[in-house]
Amino acid sequence: MIKRLLLLLLLNFGGLALGSIFTNPGVNSDWYQNLSKAPWTPPGWVFGSAWTLIMICFSIYLSLLWPKITEKSSLIGLIVVAWILNVAWNPLFFAMHQVAIALVTISLLLLVICIFFFKYWHKIHLASLLLAPYIIWLMIATSLNAYILLKNPL
Question: The pTM is what?
């Protein structure tokens, strides 16, 4: 269990590290600073704290789920898709300024995390609530992305 958890933490935080390559300069860019942002946009420090909690909970969730699944290919597929979508959003939004494609990407990520929740609820029941921070945060982040798309001439 500990080895699996450490591997999943490495995988998930590795994805965050890749994304931060684009996020950090993007947040400070003139492009981002001049966007009209949603009034409910949290302060910058909240993003790092939220993603830290999310990835810890998601890694624990996956480490609990893994031994309960006999057919692992669909689980691995969902993990890979979630990882790719999570990493892809940052360059799409911050580096390429593809706000609409980023919105589709984050919406798909929200869908994938909800699939985890509903598909595997029967395997680990209440431990599935470890996905709640991820789902809640993705709903907020999706609304922030949508606001930027709708309120800015891009």
Answer: 0.94
